[in-house]
Specification:
Layout (H helix, E strand, L loop, with lengths): L2 H31 L6 E5 L5 E4 L1 H16 L4 H15 L26 H4 L2 H12 L10 H9 L11 H11 L7 E4 L14 H8 L2 H12 L13 E5 L5 H13 L1 H4 L1 E6 L2 E4 L8 E2 L9 E6 L1
Antiparallel strand pairs: 1-2, 1-3, 4-8, 5-6, 5-8, 6-7
Protein name: Heavy metal transporter
Organism: Streptomyces mirabilis
Keywords: Membrane, Transmembrane, Transmembrane helix
Length: about 300
């Protein structure tokens, strides 16, 4: 082979090598420098624990905590339920699973958990989980994996334990004990989740106003707190007893987790405000209205 031919081959090899490197650099820049989604919810639990979820996961976690609140169940029940749902579905309302398993907890219609439509409803399926959990003797004193297995009868009974720390941090925050310890950044889009027809978004979209939000809150949180009468459909308010700030924060965080579905533009409580137009700032301080002390207010748009 001539020297000229060898030189050309080497030149082409260099060109090809540079092209491969540039392509790889471009891929890595897109893959790691650009966020997968602009929307996310971050919870700051005790002891420095931070949990980040996408809005779909956060809405389901908040629903599980709300259903427990409606039933007067302790935080430990929320921790067990969240650890189970994280393991079974990654907090997704799945339309598939092993054999006929469905939903957040992968419950099976053939095993008496309900119809496919019922199990696909996050509120219903959370309630059915808690129905079974409270029948487990001393479930509050059992390890999470033992209590969860008594309900689920999983083929992998030890798997729930790996999610206990995350579940406990989320339960601590979503039950309101940490105050404004969770915030969501939202892009302003209004997607229609697969379970919107039976979840918070479905209830709100049917009415399209404060009445829809109040109906969604009643369905998940139960009758307390009850919404104050309103003269327009652009807002809804809840009186929060001064000795129950955790109830107010639990509801406030639930509203933020469901803000996109409910078309909530702001949530205000206890001198703090979350706004969809400045969601990247989290909960900002606001001047309390003396006439609305202890009131949780939700503005809609």
């Amino acid at each position: 082979m001539t020297a000229r031919g060898t030189g050309r081959r080497r030149a082409w090899a260099v060109v090809i090598g540079v092209s491969v490197v540039l392509a790889l650099v471009s891929y890595l820049a897109v893959r790691f420098l650009r966020p997968a989604t602009p929307d996310e919810c971050t919870a700051h639990g005790p002891h420095g624990t931070t949990v980040t979820l996408d809005p779909d996961q956060a809405s389901h976690a908040a629903t599980i905590a709300a259903v427990a609140h409606a039933r007067g169940l302790p935080e430990r029940a929320v921790t067990i339920a969240l650890a189970t749902a994280i393991q079974e579905s990654k907090l997704r309302n799945l339309t598939y699973g092993d054999r006929d398993s469905l939903g957040l907890f992968q419950q099976r219609p053939s095993q008496g958990w309900g119809s496919p439509a019922q199990i696909s409803d996050p509120v219903y399926t959370s309630g059915r989980f808690f129905d079974a959990l409270v029948k487990v003797p001393d479930y509050r004193g059992l390890p999470v994996t033992v209590a969860a297995q008594q309900v689920q009868h999983s083929g992998y009974p030890q798997a729930y334990a790996q999610h206990e720390d995350v579940a406990a941090a989320l339960a601590d925050v979503l039950t309101g004990r940490e105050g404004p310890a969770l915030s969501c950044t939202v892009s302003g889009a209004n997607p229609t989740p697969s379970d919107a027809g039976s979840g918070a978004g479905g209830a709100a979209s049917e009415a399209g106003d404060g009445g829809g939000v109040a109906a969604a809150v009643r369905r998940e949180f139960g009758g307390a707190p009850a919404a104050l009468p309103t003269t327009d459909g652009d807002s809804v308010s809840y009186p929060i007893p001064t000795d129950q700030p955790s109830t107010g924060w639990s509801l406030a965080l639930w509203l933020v987790c469901h803000a996109t579905e409910l078309h909530a533009t702001s949530v205000t409580f206890d001198g703090r405000r979350w706004s969809s137009t400045a969601s990247d700032r989290g909960w900002t301080h606001t001047t309390p209205d003396p006439g609305r002390t202890g009131t949780l207010a939700v503005a809609l748009g």
